[in-house]
Prior knowledge:
The structure is a single chain. A 5-stranded mixed β-sheet has the order 5-4-3-6-10, with helices on both faces. It has a 5-stranded mixed β-sheet with strand order 13-12-11-14-15, sandwiched between helices. Strands 7-8-9 form a 3-stranded antiparallel β-sheet. The protein is of the alpha/beta class. A hairpin with a 3-residue loop joins β11 (about 215-220) and β12. The protein is built from 15 helices and 15 strands. Pfam families: MarR, ROK.
Amino acid sequence: MSTHYTRGSFQLMKSMNRSIILNMIREHGPISRADIAKQSRLTPPTVSNIVKELIQTQFVIETTQGQSKGGRKPTLLEINADHFYIIGVDVGTFHMNFVVTNLYGELKDVAKKDIPSYPSKEDILDTMKSGIREFFTSGKCDPEKFLGIGIGMHGIVDPIEGVSRFAPSFQLYDIPIKAELENEFDMIVKVENDAKAMTLGEYWFGNGNDADNMVGVNVGNGIGAGMMIKGQLFHGENNIAGEIGHITIDLSGPKCTCGNYGCLQTLAAGPAIAERARKELKTGKPSMIRDLVDHDFEKVDGKLVYEAACEGDEFSIELLNQTGRFLGIGLTNLIHTLNPKRIIIGGGVSKAGDFLMDGIKETIHSRGLTSKAKETHIVLSKLEEHASAIGACVLILEEFFSR
Ligand SMILES: [Zn+2]
């Protein structure tokens, strides 16, 4: 497949004025040429020339959906959103979630692939490659239209080198994702931690759009956070920033995979919920879960606890509420460290939203330092299960629309 055209697209955007105009159309479109000139303070002929070029290269299209004040409708400009596609991949513990979006982050195709147990680096790369390749051959999206590939990977990621430094669920180090995929597909590839990707996705297309200081918390098999400070993801010195699953909540709590005791994720991640449920069921507490698993407590998982809570099972409701209170303690620490405007909760466990939310809010309210801290806006992810994969697409959009 030829991707020279899309590589050229990035080159083209390097002009500052072009980028200003393209972003204005993205953020404020449909918009007229006159309004672009007014807001950008570029001269009307400059705007006209650049717009002509953007239309020729099919980044922008004309529409006539503007309001007319009598006479003919004004011609407005908008992003030619479906002329380019981006592939996003969210690499979890057990499977990879693949999406294709257009330039507005709208889903065009989705797929899922299982990750082999105890995978090697090659297994991870092969699973990625085969999932991506299927989008090129499925016939649903024109292969010529793909602009780039974004990867959201759990664990410690070096986004500059595009390397997964440590993937705890696989116990793998230094997977050269960017180099391998760029070589395979001859297009731009960006790699980021999954929680950071999720946060970016919510910032662009989800519940974060007006909060330049915000945190996205991904609660699944582990717990990670993406911290957005003044509109930029914060990585810290060695890309470890946001590993909030390992902040200590209870010194005498359960042992964590990291070797410490009472880490947040030993109390509030998916496996921890299942583990607590098993332990308490063994003490004889009444719950409908007993019958659901036919008294085989090994079958208990987070999803089952949630389903029982939805059926009104008091045991499960209280368990999720308690999980919310643990999360609330972790989030209170974050509030006191970063003072974000908003915290967005995503990941598999966030499906139990309402059951968690009461515990989270109640804890933050009782522990927050000031009334402003107590009132920190806590919301669930808007992009839900695709948040990290859509966020991975935003890694490419950020590049494309960079100023
Ligand atoms: Zn830990």
